[in-house]
């Protein structure tokens, strides 16, 4: 409530309460005013009661009345005044007690208010300290936020760079996949061609081996026949030599026959030498055929090994063996 209510307003409010036939009290006067502290209104109300008694004592003259009536009326008025003063004193005693209680209550409220103010000041100082700490934390957070924003921008740039690298890597992977498919297709084609070539070479090698084996068999048969012929020629030579010796011992005159037999022996020796030469040639041919057969078998074994595919170059065809 407002403090320092004018005394005229308090006196007017007390007169209004008294005019309604009610006893002016602090609460009634404050209710009539609508404002004012209990201490201020109580002090001004005491002054109003003193002024009211003076106003009542000043109304002792009653002009226009007979002296006896005026005196009787004054005596009655004085008695009423005394009674009123007694009632006023009693009322004032109660009002003073209420006022003291209200003053004590106001003092308590004032002390509590002072304590509250001190507490509020302490809280305000603490709040100010907290505010300053919060402002410092806010500044730190703003610096961290700026750093985070810069880091986010750097990370965004790195992300864009990584995205470009990822796109380039994907394109490179797609290109490598296409090359891989092409290489696989080429390798498959090369493998098929190599397998066909190997099969052809194997078939030719098998035919060569079979032919070499047949030739080997024929050569061995020829060697056996030549061996038999050589044995027969040896026997004929020995027989001719024996006949020659016998002819020389029996008849010197059979010189011509001996010479003829000698020529036959020389012919047999020449034939034997030719047979031996043919046998040697046949043995050499047999050895060459066996070497060629072994070479062909080694080539077949090498061709059966898995071929190593290259990335772009077609596999090199092995050189066809010379059948000679």
Outline the structure in words.
The chain has 324 residues and is an all-alpha fold. The protein has a domain of 114 residues. Helices cover 85% and strands 0% of the residues. The protein contains five helices and no strands. The longest helix has 184 residues. The radius of gyration is 78 Å and the shape is rod-shaped. The mean pLDDT is 79.
Name the features.
324 residues, 85% helix
Shape category: rod-shaped
The fraction of residues assigned to DSSP E strands is under 5%
User: Rounded to an integer, what's the Rg over CA atoms?
Assistant: 78 Å
Runs with pLDDT <50, length 5+? none
Largest sheet: none
Q: Could you estimate the helical fraction of the residues in percent?
A: over 70%
The average pLDDT value, as a whole number, equals 79
Q: What's the number of helices?
A: 5
Structural category is: mainly alpha
Q: From N to C, what is the helix and strand string?
A: HHHHH
Distance between the termini: 138 Å
Number of DSSP-assigned strands: 0
